Amino acid sequence: MTDYTERLRENRAEKDRVFAEERGSPIPPDERDDFDGLDYFEPDPDYRVEATVTVHDDPAPVDMETSDDRTVRYLRVVTFEFALDGESYTLHGYRQEGRDDEVFVPFRDKTTGQQTYRGGRYMELAPDRELTDGDRVTLDFNLAYTPFCAFSDAFSCPLPPEENWLETVVPAGERDPHA
After folding, report:
1. Residue 109 pLDDT
2. The dihedral sign for the CA sequence 145, 147, 150, 151
3. Whether pLDDT at 98 is above 90
4. Contacts for 49 with CB less than 8 Å, ≥ 6 apart
5. Residue 10 is inside which H or E element, if any?
6. Total-model pTM
């Protein structure tokens, strides 16, 4: 087993522990005793891809619908171009106005609503420096996770905008918690 796969399995085990035991868990308290961990696709290095960065110097606002029928505004700050199974794709990364921390990458793919949560999945990137045009970053779909609103209506989650709907299957990361 590779170091990467081992680290990923350890990360998943820790997340399962947090969901089962911690106060901030999205699992409702009365359901935690029956919670025996999240369902994941097997780790697959083919879904850990290198992407080329295009930075948007004047980020366009994007209004995202939410799971509770509200709208939240994000700024499209970056575009990632990458290849999966020999095909080229793009995903956009967003930040809320006034924030300069992680890049939020919500997406849907052809597993959405079947093998994965109907509202899409998320990835987050925490670059160790300011991204610039032409930078190469790793998009690791093995880390794609289900938003908290899939577990409880107490959470409101942005839904991936249509520009982040991938026309391919991405069998990596978390599966639908209700499947």
Report:
1. 98
2. positive
3. no
4. 82, 83, 84, 138, 139, 140, 141
5. helix 3-21
6. 0.94
